[in-house]
Design a protein that fits this description.
five-stranded parallel beta sheet, 20 strands, seven-stranded mixed beta sheet, 490 residues, alpha/beta, 35% helix, FAD/NAD(P)-binding domain, globular
Length: 490
Amino acid sequence: MSKKVSIVGSGIAGISASIRLANAGFKVDVYEANAYPGGKLSVLKLGDYRFDAGPSLFTMPQFVNELFELNQLDPHEFFEYFTCNTTCHYFFEDGTFLPVSSNRETLLDTVKSVLKIDTDPLERHLEHSAYIYKKTHKVFLERSLHKFSSYLSKDIIRTIAAIPNLGLFTTMHASNEKNLNHPKLVQLFDRYATYNGSNPYQAPGILNIIPHLEFGIGTYFPKKGMNDITQSLVHLAEKIGVNFHYNSPVQEIVEDGKVISGIRVNDSFIPSDLVFCNADVKPAYKYLLKNTKANKKTLAQEPSSSAMIFYWGIKKSFDNLDLHNIFFSEDYKNEFSTIFEKKDVCDDPTVYVHISSKYVKDDAPKNCENWFVMVNVPSNSGQDWEELRKRIRTNIIHKLNRLLHVDLESLIEEEDFLDPIRIEQRTSSYAGALYGASSNDRNAAFFRHPNFSKVKGLYFVGGSVHPGGGIPLCLLSAKIASEIAIQDFN
């Protein structure tokens, strides 16, 4: 008789864990509070427009492919994606336009032409990003930092030897400012801190590993949109026997402080040999675990940034805008200080626009576009988000009107939004933080909750635990937790 696993939540990490555990012979059931899977990686439909509700950037597709290959399936028969030749188009306030290619030679040529600078420092910076990845990914991303066995490998020796060159003792911004020879490049590379909800003026320089995911490995986009990552993996999970239960919020993870016994859903007890928690750890300990308390350092970690997102159906096609677009504010440092210190938003925000209908034609009617428009905001700490949303919307429209020379308001025919309150309501992310805890501390990686628990049979996956937020890291959290659980069980 196969052993039963109950998974709390169907975020991308929960789905991935279900596939790995079912492949290992466990009977797996996934319980999801919403009527749909995916957590933040879900979909929104407004009239004739379709939007990816969450992440809009796809990197490290090998971790998705791996789940199909684990089951002797060709991933390309079930999930198709293509390489983005241009990762982002950057529009600066002074009129500078910088298309950033994922091809290094093209990137260097473009930067040299547009910014009129020597690109040797940029090339060295990209090589250093690759160096950080090479020296750390096996240790910091692909293994548990909370298991003694992780420190007995040859990889840890290489990582320790490289510590003086990893940027642990400087900030991401200081490293960028020292090594790059143009303020616009510093802004551009500071932005990568937002990929895990952190502040480049506080986060350690080791986070300069992130650009390598784009420039060293590449950026991609699913042919059916980002939500196809969720749908393809759910299809795979169901194909190998995983059962999904929607509209089924878990009321309690039942344990006695020592051993797991199951979960409670709809006032019914479901016995389980193992429980995988894909819920954010802070609400999980507050609402689901009655007899076990979290480590105080884990609960005290600073939340990552959140987002204010507008979904706009635009009745016009902008030929000069591609898949990813960034519009920078003039005072980038002030923007991060308002996000992480003053807990407000600046009046001239950096605006991120994602237009998937450029590639997925069914995402918008003919000669129209679906705009995912986002600004970084702090996590919720009691702000008046209704007032802030109106103010941010006005500022965004003024900014885009100025930069694009349009009357944007007149082009919006469908609209919806997400703010930290709605993000928390729909995904149970503490305070609406997108990535769990920020990395505004060199020790933040070690303070993240481990993928296992002192309660026997309880494991944790998702963006609020090791190794962090974002699609690739959530997939890796599921891999780490599943391997630990299988080893523990055996």
